[in-house]
Specification:
Strand content: 15-25%
Oligomer: single chain
CATH class of the largest domain: Alpha Beta
Low-confidence stretches: none
Mean pLDDT: 96
CATH topology of the largest domain: Alpha-D-Glucose-1,6-Bisphosphate, Chain A, domain 3
Number of helices: 15
Structural class: alpha/beta
Largest sheet: 8 strands, mixed
Distance between the termini: 52 Å
Shape: globular
CATH architecture of the largest domain: 3-Layer(aba) Sandwich
Number of strands: 22
């Protein structure tokens, strides 16, 4: 019986439900997981041309992790694959097993910041994370397999790779700070708060910062707990940022750090709880990246601000505002570098940051390590990370609204809505299309229409039209939203878009 697993594809990941109702069409059953892991092994053999392959398996703190890990390991070993069971591990660390341990591939069991009943699979090779087309091929082959469990007897051994990964980060700080007075404790005298959100990131406080002399006593939610009882493990979540900001201020710390569940994303706060995320974080990372790559190109997602573009230019860099989706910005970065264009950083406002020097890997711990090295140097000069972005122009207002497309075949409907605004902007007084846009339609609005910009785009994964907007005046977003609502309401062929969120906001 051929099974259709295509619905489990989520960009360049496999995702679904892993707790609760097993009749859910998106439930990641043991059979589905087994077939997917066996298909990855077959795909990996074809890619490497090797029969004897070595694959690492790790997971975040989710409640369903152990069940899924057992299914993955059984599938791999029964098909003759040698397996390294890395147990609780960050996603970037699992990629690093292909570098440090010589693994041909890696499997990370995670659903990033999604709710506790979700889980998923991420696959890596030494070239990085797989692309969406690879995932589509793996899922197709998984559904067509007649016998996913083979007769092989691959070995499985436990590996504490996180200890080695923490050592890599510690050495990076030791070399970066290069404190001649106490080389082994370069962070002595610094107070740093870590909020791991009960995900995997607690290791950063315990195994990276504390051994280097940092005071991490104000850290919160370091213990892994798949119930995520304190806040969503997500640097984009307002409550999560409030928690780490308060903890940093309460501890009178120099710096605060927050990770998502699997540590491929991060954000931070300065002294007093000053939030450094989204455009501020991209600006800070860009400043540091450009210091060692003058004139380099910084690739970001499509929703970054005009102020950020100005900041990158003022620091000698070039800004390429590309598409949402961390694989999109990273792949663009790789493409530019391969064509001879220096591109030291690709970054989403969500906190995914990939440095070219670090295998083009989106690694929240690596990003924070770079920032801590910079913060240590600045503290000796009597200044701080916040001062580096003091000249970043920030909008007065920003807003994101999401509208569901009410049909199964949603992509044509979404493209129809974007086309509506592509036509409207040509004749709409006070509007002009941005000429450097690569996703949806981004429109500049003059002072009569909101004094800012708005972007209408189709969600990367879901049947959703997203409206992002920024304004340089109070009340400007309301003006833009009223204009957008008027255009949609007046269109004759737009009847499958739920704009109730927009109507409610205007009301």
């Amino acid at each position: 019986m051929i099974m259709d697993y295509s619905k489990f594809k989520s960009g360049s990941d496999i995702r679904g439900y892993a707790l609760g109702d097993e009749t859910n069409p998106l439930y990641m059953s043991n059979e589905m997981v087994t077939r997917s892991a066996a298909s990855f092994a077959e795909w990996l053999r074809k890619k490497t041309g090797k029969d004897d392959i070595f694959v690492s398996v790790g997971h975040d703190s989710r409640l369903s992790a152990e069940r899924i890990k057992r299914a993955v390991i059984k599938a791999l070993t029964s098909n003759g694959v040698k397996v390294a069971d890395c147990s609780l591990a960050s996603t970037p660390a699992m990629f690093m097993t292909t570098v440090e341990m010589g693994c041909d591939g890696a499997v990370q069991i995670t659903a990033s910041h999604h709710p506790k009943d979700r889980n998923g699979l991420k696959f890596f090779t030494r070239d990085g994370g797989l692309d969406g087309s690879d995932i589509a091929d793996i899922l197709k082959a998984a559904g067509e397999m007649s016998a996913p469990l083979g007769n092989g007897s691959g070995e499985c051994e436990k590996h504490d790779f996180m200890a080695r990964y923490a050592e890599i980060l510690r050495n990076m700080i030791i070399e970066g700070v290069d404190d001649k007075t106490d080389r082994e404790h370069p962070l002595k005298g610094m107070k740093i708060v870590v909020d791991a959100g009960n995900g995997v990131g607690g290791f950063y406080a315990k195994d990276v910062l504390a051994p280097l002399g940092a005071d991490t006593s104000g850290s919160i939610y370091l213990d892994p707990d798949g119930n995520f009882p304190n806040h969503a493990p997500n640097p984009e979540n307002a409550q999560a940022m409030e928690c780490v900001s308060k903890a940093t201020a309460d501890a009178d710390a120099d710096f605060g750090v927050i990770f998502d569940t699997d540590v491929d994303r991060a954000a931070c706060v300065g002294k007093g709880g000053f939030e450094i995320n989204r455009n501020r974080l991209v600006a800070l990372a860009s400043k540091i990246a450009l210091s060692s790559c003058p004139g380099g190109t910084i690739v970001t997602d499509s929703v970054t601000s005009d102020g950020l573009a100005e900041f990158i230019a003022a620091n000698g860099g070039k800004h390429l505002r590309f598409k949402r989706g961390y694989r999109n910005v990273i792949n663009k970065q790789i493409e530019l570098c391969e064509s001879g264009i220096d591109c030291p950083l690709a970054m989403e406002t969500s906190g995914h940051a990939a440095f070219a020097e670090n295998y083009f890997l989106d690694d929240g711990a690596y990003l924070i390590t770079k920032l801590i090295i910079e913060a240590a140097a600045l503290s000796k000069q009597g200044t701080s990370l916040e001062d580096l972005i003091g000249k970043l122009r920030e909008a007065k207002e920003e807003k994101e609204l999401r509208f569901r497309i009410l049909c199964d075949d949603f992509r044509p409907e979404g493209e129809k809505i974007i086309e509506l605004f592509e036509n409207e902007v040509k004749n709409h007084a006070g509007w002009s299309a941005c000429d450097d846009n690569h996703e949806g339609i981004r429109i500049n609005a003059d002072s009569s229409c909101g004094n800012g910009w708005f972007l209408i785009r189709l969600s990367v994964h879901d049947p959703i039209i997203v409206l992002n907007s920024e304004s340089d005046e109070e009340g400007g977003i309301m003006k833009m939203c009223k204009d957008v609502f008027k255009v949609i309401s007046g269109a004759k062929n737009i009847d499958k878009l739920d704009v109730s969120a927009l109507a409610e906001y205007i009301k």
